[in-house]
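Practice record 12: protein with uridine-diphosphate-N-acetylglucosamine.
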Amino acid sequence: MQEGRAITFTSNLPNTFMASEEDSAILEILGGQRLSGHVAISGAKNSALVLMAGALLCPQECRLRNVPSLVDVGRMGEILMALGVKLERQGDCLTLNASSIGESRAPYELVSQLRASFFVIGPLLARLGVARVPLPGGCAIGARPVDLHVRGLQAMGAEVQIDHGMVNAYVRGASKRLKGAKIYLDYPSVGATETLMMAATLADGETIIENAAQEPEVADLANFCRAMGAKIRGAGTNTITISGVPSLHSTDYSIIPDRVEAGTFLVAGAITYSELSLSPVIPDHLTAVIAKLQAVGAQVITEAPNRLRLIPSDRNRATDIETLPYPGFPTDMQAQFMALLALSEGNSVITETVFENRLRHVAELNRMGANIRLKGCNAIIRGVPMLSGAPVVATDLRASAALVLAGLAANGKTTIQGLHHLDRGYEQLEAKLQKLGARLQRVKGSSDAGNNSALET
Ligand code: UD1
């Protein structure tokens, strides 16, 4: 695994980020190149973040493997260090030692940069009987409340007060132990399922989470907790049963491959009419994405249990997509498919049902010549034969991936600003694309991006 531009944990000192430099950097892409070859898929960001929080449950050292080198992973590491966790990173292996966590308060300035850090509330409460975590607030894709997390913890006996933007949670009584409960989630929230599952691992008695999220990252967290001695059944289905145990123990665990990164590269193949192979992947995690690629006309072949090959069509065609909780089509792949459908023959409709503000890439794709109209949570896409390279701005993580894909397929040069979004979630994206033959590079930003250009059009 290559070392990324993100963080390595070599000491317990807070890491510094290259955020300001990356904020002003620009990605230049010269479109129209055919890609070919093989892509190595990194570990799943959304698993890594929650498993790192899960390590707080364990009073002994835990080792996570296949941890991607990403800005978000670095931020989660800083939050854990602020809570007293010792972290050490070597390559893609992260060692976490939460034996002496004393601090129950997560610092606002760190939590506000990473919504996933709210997850620490579950393990902190389970382990210490007290947790003080700032409300994460909204983010680029919507308001993203935490009411389901809070109500579930209350059902398990936690007292929760929200004061001045801080969620103060504690467990009454000498044992400071949460109690097992039957919890029905109004919506199968991934975050709430993960928070409650972690909290329940050390609770007194049995917890049943009904209408639980079924995402692979939830199952990965359950497998990690089970490797530490937790008793969890049904993760990956809509009913999860957790029998609380008094304590967990050390483990060595490898994170699943990133299904969103894999899906993004499959779309890169389809949109540039290029044959690509990827591994490692878990093809079952990509069922909805593969179905939609096939609807567009591409073939996706399972060459080996952990390896996929994309064979493009002669001409991509329209299809409709609705984002849904897993196993439905993932909201994290919506923007990338928007870029693909913008260049596919016919009319498509994409309906975003999970987040209310996750269609901001439409305006940027239209700047490149796409014909997309927004009506509420629906994007009506009239396929065009060609996009033209243009300066665009990434508005969130997956939107930035969509703009990269559009840039790879477009005529001429695209320049993308707002790369801090991209660096949150794609490990070595430029290097991986360059290896496939794409022409792209990062340059220092300026008011006229072309001045620093080294890519010839
Ligand atoms: C979501 C995605 C997940 C994706 C991640 C990162 C779904 C169901 N979840 O997970 O696959 O990897 O974003 O992009 O697609 N909600 C509440 N109250 C809560 C918690 C959530 O109303 O307490 C709402 C959210 O506002 C949102 C929906 O539930 O509309 C899904 O949220 P949730 O699954 O918790 O989001 P993430 O865990 O971030």
